[in-house]
Design a protein that fits this description.
- The chain is mostly helical.
- It has one domain (9-319).
- It contains 14 helices and 4 strands.
- It has a two-stranded antiparallel ribbon with strand order 1-4. The protein has a two-stranded parallel sheet with strand order 2-3.
- Helix 9 (214-222) packs antiparallel against helix 13 (277-293).
- Residues 310-368, 380-432 are annotated as: Disordered.
- This is Serine/threonine-protein phosphatase 2A activator.
- It comes from Ephemerocybe angulata.
Length: 432
């Protein structure tokens, strides 16, 4: 696993330019992919993903990192603001105007919130972290929320990790996903519900999710190396809240009605057409790059510069060496390995664990699965995801007409064989 570089506090104090909006054209999007910040973000997501393989919800660290405790306090405070600033009693289909008041308070108090979060010694970091925190919860002008805002929060965590407010070690990275990101996700769901935020740039039924993407990456990472729970288990509801993928599917069922294959055709296609969680996990990384990081309408709102450097290479992206790659390999975000037991990786965390099949029950340990092949060996294999983000091995449709130029999909299958979700032994520990 590639290491994440460090930006020392001394170096931070010498940086003149802060984050600004650099991405305005399609050429700027491609230029961003040649920057150090893009490589940092790629490495960061890969490390977060690896840290949660075979760890399941609910999960609590034995000793929470100090930064974890402090950022949870920050998110709790932002959550409390929804009680202080209730929605206005006015007829509005989308976007309650009270969200602008919530956002105004965040803008006014952001410096003090970050000073309290970071503490002594990290004061120079505030001006570089502030733009990402401000844009993590939605647009206060358009009153919407989408994957670009979610990406801003991930970049916020990246900035704090580069300066070593968070240490880039598996235990802390696991906390960032299963504790911090989970808390952020629940806060965003609450903001969307309380203030009726509109999905930003939603693809409708053809998108993965109206507002989020990263929970599906991390959730499929949690499930990646086990074989007890098949991919099509998501079609059986209610689902246990034992991983971020299932949690996100349950959220969809709360806010959408009707047949799942109609309102969430991409997720249904993955469920019936992708062979295993390893392929899902690696494919979602490619899809995230194609459908989020490569879309100008999404990334044009992301400020770059300063700690997250804007330093486009003169070389095309395909010729640039990325972390963990060999010369000549593409800088396209690499898919994660299917198993951390690979000879080229240092295993992260304790031995493999059995996936929890109960509703939040504890986990019993078992020996790791072996022999799983990397999903990116043959790019055209069934279940892989193309550069454009379309699932090649996961094609379904309902009564919804295909958009122009889209793939033709097969009808949804009949009944899926049931997956048993028995409770695991009560004396089992966490997913380790």
């Amino acid at each position: 696993m590639a290491n994440l570089r460090q930006v020392t506090l001394d170096a931070v104090q010498t940086i003149v330019d802060g984050p600004t909006l650099h991405i305005k054209t399609e050429e700027d999007v491609e230029a961003w992919k040649t920057t150090q910040s893009y490589r940092d973000y790629s490495t960061f997501l890969q490390r977060l993903n690896e840290s949660v393989v075979n760890y399941y919800l609910p999960w609590s660290p034995e000793t929470p990192a100090r930064g974890t405790v402090k950022i949870l306090a920050l998110l709790d405070k932002l959550d409390q603001w929804t009680e202080d600033i209730p929605p206005l009693e006015t007829p509005q289909r989308f976007g309650n105007l009270a969200f602008r008041s919530w956002g105004r308070r965040l803008e006014e108090q952001c410096d003090s919130l970050l000073a309290e979060l970071l503490g002594d010694g990290f004061e120079p970091v505030i001006r570089f972290a502030k733009p990402y925190l401000l844009s993590s919860f939605g647009s206060f002008t358009r009153m919407d929320y989408g994957t670009g805002h979610e990406t801003s929060f991930a970049l916020f965590l990246l900035v704090l990790t580069l300066v070593r407010f968070f240490e880039p070690v598996p235990e802390v990275e696991r906390q960032l996903v299963l504790v911090v990101f989970l808390r952020y996700l629940r806060l965003c769901w609450k903001l969307q519900d309380v203030y009726r935020l509109e999905p930003a740039g939603s693809h409708g039924v053809w998108g993965l999710d109206d507002s989020h993407f990263l929970p599906y990456i991390f959730g499929s990472g949690e499930l990646r190396d086990q074989t007890d729970i098949p991919v099509n288990a998501i079609l059986q509801t209610p689902l246990p809240d034992t991983n971020l993928y299932f949690l996100s599917i349950s959220r969809i069922h709360e806010v959408k009605h009707g047949p799942f294959h109609e309102h969430s055709s991409s997720l249904h296609a993955i469920a019936v057409g992708v062979a295993n969680w390893g392929k899902v996990n690696s494919g979602l990384f490619k899809m995230y790059e194609a459908e989020v990081l490569s879309k100008r309408v999404v990334v044009q709102h992301i400020p770059l510069g300063g700690i997250l450097e804007w330093n486009p290479s003169q070389s095309p992206a395909s010729d640039l060496e990325s972390p963990g790659s060999r010369p000549g390999q593409s800088t396209q975000m690499p898919p994660p390995p299917t198993s951390t037991s690979s000879s080229v990786l240092t295993p992260i965390g304790p031995p493999r664990a059995r996936a929890p099949l109960g509703h939040g029950g504890p986990i019993s340990a078992r020996t790791a699965n072996v022999g799983t092949r990397a999903p990116w060996v043959a790019s055209a294999a069934p279940g892989s995801i193309s550069r454009s983000g379309n699932l090649e091995g996961a094609r379904v449709s309902g009564s919804i007409p295909n958009p122009p130029g889209s793939i033709t999909m097969a009808p949804p299958p009949g009944a899926v064989p049931p997956t048993s979700f028995p409770h695991t032994p009560a004396d089992s520990g966490r997913g380790s």
